[in-house]
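Handout for the seminar on molecular recognition.
Each group receives one record of this type.
Step one: identify the two inputs.
Step two: read the structure output and locate the region that could contact NDP.
Step three: write two sentences on what you found, then compare them with the reference statements printed after the record.
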Amino acid sequence: MCYPARSVGTSERESTMAQELNFKQELTGFFGQPASENPTQAMIEAAYRHHDLFWRYLTIEVAPEGLADAVRGARAMGFRGFNLTIPHKVSVIQHLDGLGESASLMEAVNCVVRRGDALVGENTDGKGFVKSLSETTDPSGKNVVILGAGGAARAIAVELALAGVPKIRIVNRSEQRGRELVDLLNDRVPAEAEFVLWEGDYRVPEDAEVVVNATSIGLYPDVDARIPLNVDSLQSHMVVCDVIPNPLTTRLVRDAESNGCRVIDGLGMLVNQGVVAIEYWTGVDPETGPMRKALEDIFGAP
Ligand code: NDP
């Protein structure tokens, strides 16, 4: 980290130390609304501190009508990059100079990276999920069931297909949203996708190897909400993943664990999308330990 040096002593020493002075931190952050309850700053700055990076990650509340100015401001102030969250993931695209492959397929950007003078939109949601899953099992060749068809499901499904998943079942309550995602997958990525209308308790098929809850069911404060799922159909050969980061141990994670499944909680995805963003911005591959610890301190470790 390049802290400002205090220059005292001979004029030669003073001039050497003056050259070391640097009060200008590299800027990153996120734009969203609401913003104040989003804990990403704690996670990213834990990594910056751990790796002695003289960088900042700012939590910035931006209303929809202010987004164009916010992006212009980020350009003018030399931001190295920034994340986007609700409600800016799609509307930001018109203000950028280009898109990475996944962002282009998903038509949604959650991470902007300054490359030269260009601001390029990427999507780290699904990449974070795949990185997290890969710590437990290689997704390539696996048969996957995804519950939900919203933004998280879309990011996860696209990235899993790009990682070599051949078959994805999308299970969703609203038929239109489910079919739109299935059509996108069948048209644009090398995976076979099938839509399943979610009625009653869903029974996970025996050939599923990875099961992902990508719905918002169980998110704090609705922690006792039950996913309409036949829990007995979760079998020990399956890896069961939840995207819900708060609470850390969801009802699904508990049920899957007691059935002998390997489980991945929502922090895995959250931490790993931070890892991908930091790699994009700084070139440093950060250690996950301090990042996860920062979030566990906030959400309460199990
Ligand atoms: P969206 O609103 O885009 O999608 C929500 C999905 O959940 C839809 O498929 C919706 O179905 C489904 N759903 C919600 N309630 C019910 C219900 N009662 N019964 C059945 N289906 C239901 O949200 P996102 O995709 O953006 O986010 C989903 C979750 O993912 C959130 O909890 C968010 O916190 C989490 N997330 C976690 C991340 C991480 O890093 N861990 C990153 C991004 C998101 P329908 O279409 O029928 O309405």
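Reference statements: The chain is about 35% helix and 20% strand. The pocket of NDP is lined by residues 125, 128, 148-153, 172-174, 177, 198, 214-217, 219, 243-245, 266, 269-270, 273 (CB under 6 Å).
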